[in-house]
Design goal:
The complex is a heterodimer of chains A (about 280) and B (about 400).
Chain A lengths: L5 H8 L12 E7 L4 E9 L5 E9 L2 H14 L4 H4 L4 H7 L8 H18 L15 E3 L4 E2 H11 L4 H8 L9 H18 L15 H22 L2 E9 L2 E8 L7 H16 L5 E4 L1
Helix pairs in contact in A: 1-2, 2-5, 4-5, 5-7, 6-7, 6-8, 9-10
Chain B lengths: L3 E2 L10 H7 L15 H21 L6 E4 L2 H15 L5 E5 L4 H13 L3 E5 L9 H7 L4 E5 L13 H10 L3 E5 L18 E5 L10 E5 L14 H4 L7 H39 L3 E4 L9 E6 L4 H10 L2 E2 L1 E2 L12 H5 L4 H4 L2 E5 L6 H21 L19
Parallel strand pairs in B: 1-11, 3-4, 3-5, 5-6, 6-7
Antiparallel strand pairs in B: 2-8, 7-8, 9-10, 10-13, 12-13
Helix pairs in contact in B: 1-8, 2-8, 3-4, 8-12, 9-12
Classes of the chains: A alpha+beta (about 280), B alpha/beta (about 400).
């Protein structure tokens, strides 16, 4: 059984504003019988652009009915300009939250509202039609890429499962899961590109003074490199540091070892590049 | 509030006689049946009796019964054993309407282990096509696994005939009989079924116990390997109380099956007829001529199943739905989908499954109180305008 909040249950069992407004100023229809949920939202708007009445007709589960009922309560008395800022998150929050798998019910409310306002302004018909400019991703539920990208961004979606919970895309045969992964990566890539420059330095020694840099090199040799060489009966001595050029001397079993060149490049230089500066070159003195 | 429990294909009430039978095994008789001492040994004797009761219900030998933890474990064991004992064969036949215990496992085998799986389809009544089945069998087929009765619609499949066809082709035949055992007469001695799964909690034993019948002589590969319990065919300390309960439940089922089913099917028929008469645009899913005596799956057009269930729950009526919203998936039941039930009806399907503990008064209550629920939901639906005349006029109608 779903864990619904008391408010969801209350709105489901005693829905407010169920029904039709015969002379509605705006009507928004979304969903279909095939999809398993559908909502028709009616709004009445006065001369001051205030929503004076809102009613709904919903075919769907408890959270779909509760989301519709909540939406009408939120709309009545609000100026249209404010109402059009309402999001699915606001609907879910009003209800004290919805199970993540049911978030698409709140999305349906937001879409119906957008459509009703467009219809009121004479910009569109009553039924939300996909622009078909984008790519049809989920054939089972008829969801296009634009809608998915918008949902990812608006709700900070992180996984295919999230996308399904919010848009229904991917909830049928599952053939579109790869496309959904692609859209996620695309949205996340854009987010990364738009992100403010990171405060984290590109490499550990970036911005350090020469003394700090030398201390860091010494500590990497002492903590990460020497113990590994000592385990094989060898050792290392730091001879010189000149900016990014480091000179060392092998000792013990490492001195004259046929693999010393590889050890120098892979272990010593590799570790210093990783932990200090990728520009470091190490030579044997 | 009294609960009217009409969800017996999900689980059943433990029969009071079963509960009485197992009580001492929680308190005084808690020995381990594998122990050498008499204190454990006496429990071993009772387990032997339980095994015999299960065998009697299925008309097989006691040593053909392996106790497991549930129907799913029995199903998985059966399929895995067949595949492991015939490693050269890579083909499995099952149906599109199986319980997930078989269906999900077959899909796993298909994806992860490269087995080829044929999923037999059904007609609109949920009936399998035997010609399609015959054609699907190939020399590479290792096992056929087909449920005896469907959990959602109650449809009974022609298992005896299908098992014989498998045997004629040298293929192992397994049946998930979780819903059938205790409700239909099963005679394994005269059948070609090689393996059969059952689950205790579907026939008035507690949850957490099941059994697998494995025909004598069939090569068997255990799923759980460890101790020597169940003659090394299923390792793990016996769930003694569960097993003893299952034995008692099987004993009761064998004794009362016919009479009980007559009573239960009469109540089921009354419920079905009452709802169909009172609620327009409603229809039965499945094959009314060939189904379990306790099950009816009814679709109420233009309403959504979860909403119906929750409204019913407010009145203390417990049932199940094949609607998408109850399952966490977004599509209605795979069984109704396989039967090509139209979306209009599939989303509003409710499964009522009765037991011997249901009463005439309970059925009357549902017939009286469900129609107004459907009517209210339809009134709220945007499709009501398209479907003028859907208002209920039966008993309890708000009109």
């Amino acid at each position: 059984m779903w864990e619904y909040t008391d408010k969801v249950k209350e709105h489901f069992l005693n829905p407010r504003n169920a029904g039709k407004i015969e002379d509605a100023d705006g009507i928004g229809e979304v969903g279909s019988l095939a999809c398993g949920d559908a909502l028709t939202l009616y709004i009445k708007v006065d001369d001051d652009n205030i929503i004076t009445d809102a009613k709904f007709q919903t075919f769907g589960c408890a959270s779909a009915i509760a989301s519709s009922s909540a939406l009408t309560e939120m709309l009545i008395g609000k100026p249209v300009e404010e109402a059009e800022k309402l999001t699915n998150k606001d609907i879910a929050e009003y209800l004290g939250g919805l199970p993540r798998e049911k978030m698409h019910c709140s999305v349906m409310g937001q879409e119906a509202l957008e459509q009703a306002i467009k219809n009121m302004r004479g910009e569109a018909g009553t039924k939300a039609e996909h622009s078909h400019e984008g790519e049809l991703i989920c054939e089972c539920f008829g969801v296009f890429d634009e809608e998915i990208l918008q949902a990812i961004k608006a709700n900070d979606l992180k996984s295919v499962e999230d996308i399904t919970n919010f848009t229904k895309a991917g909830g049928g045969c599952g053939k579109c899961h790869e496309d959904l992964e692609r859209l996620l990566a695309e949205a996340q890539g854009e987010a990364a590109a738009c992100a403010t420059p990171s405060a984290t330095p590109a490499y550990p020694a970036e911005g350090m003074t020469n003394i700090q840099r030398m201390h860091l090199i010494e500590s990497v040799i002492d903590d990460d490199i020497r113990p590994a060489l000592q385990a094989d009966g060898g050792d290392i001595r730091l001879m010189d540091i000149d900016k990014t050029s480091v000179t060392v001397q092998f000792m013990g079993m490492c001195s004259g070892c046929p693999s010393s060149k590889a050890t120098l490049n892979n272990l010593v230089q590799g570790k210093l590049r990783e932990k200090v500066d990728p520009a470091i070159t190490v030579t044997e003195g | 509030m009294k609960t009217i429990y009409l969800d017996n294909n999900a689980t059943t009430q433990v029969d009071p006689a079963v509960f009485e039978a197992i009580k001492p095994y929680f308190t005084e008789l808690y020995g381990n049946p594998s122990s050498m001492h008499r204190f454990g040994g006496q429990v071993g004797v009772t387990i032997k009796e339980a095994r015999s009761s299960v065998a009697k219900l299925l008309n097989c030998d006691s040593d053909e019964i392996i106790f497991t933890s549930c129907g799913s474990e029995s199903d998985n064991t059966a399929i895995r054993s067949a595949l492991n004992s015939r490693p050269d064969k890579r083909h499995i036949i099952t149906t599109a309407v199986e319980h997930p215990a078989v269906l999900s496992f077959c899909k796993f085998l298909e994806k992860k282990e490269n087995y080829e799986v044929t999923y037999l389809g059904t007609d609109e009544r949920g009936r399998l096509d035997l010609d399609e089945y015959r054609k699907a069998i190939s020399p590479d087929t290792a096992i056929v696994s087909v449920m005896w009765a469907n959990n959602e619609t109650g449809n009974i499949h022609p298992i005896e005939e299908m098992a014989q066809i498998a045997r004629d082709n040298g293929v192992i035949f397994h049946t998930d009989a979780v819903q059938a055992v205790g409700k239909v007469s099963i005679d394994l001695k005269s059948s070609a079924v090689d393996m059969l799964s059952l689950s205790g909690h579907k026939l008035h034993a507690p949850k957490g116990v099941g059994a697998l019948y494995v025909r004598k002589g069939l090569m068997f590969r255990p799923l759980l390997i460890g101790g020597h319990q169940e003659r090394s065919r299923r390792a793990g300390t016996e769930n003694t109380t569960g097993i003893i309960a299952l034995g008692k439940a099987c004993e009761l089922a064998a004794k009362n099956m016919e009479t009980e089913n007559t009573v239960v099917s009469r109540l089921r028929d009354k419920l079905e007829a009452g709802l169909l008469a009172a609620i327009p645009d409603s229809k039965v899913n499945g094959d009314p001529e060939n189904r379990l005596p306790n099950t009816t799956n009814i679709s109420f057009g233009y309403v959504e199943g979860e909403a119906i269930l929750l409204m019913m729950d407010q009145l203390g009526i417990a049932a199940s739905s094949g609607s998408a919203c109850t399952s966490g998936s977004l599509e209605p039941s795979h069984v109704l989908k396989a039967m090509s039930v139209p979306f209009t009806f599939a989303h509003g399907s409710i499964r009522f499954s009765l037991s011997r503990f249901n009463t005439e008064e309970e059925i009357d209550f549902v017939i009286e109180n469900l129609p107004p629920i459907i009517e209210n939901l339809r009134k709220m639906s945007p499709f009501s305008a398209e479907k003028e005349g859907l208002a209920c006029t039966g008993p309890g109608s708000m009109q």
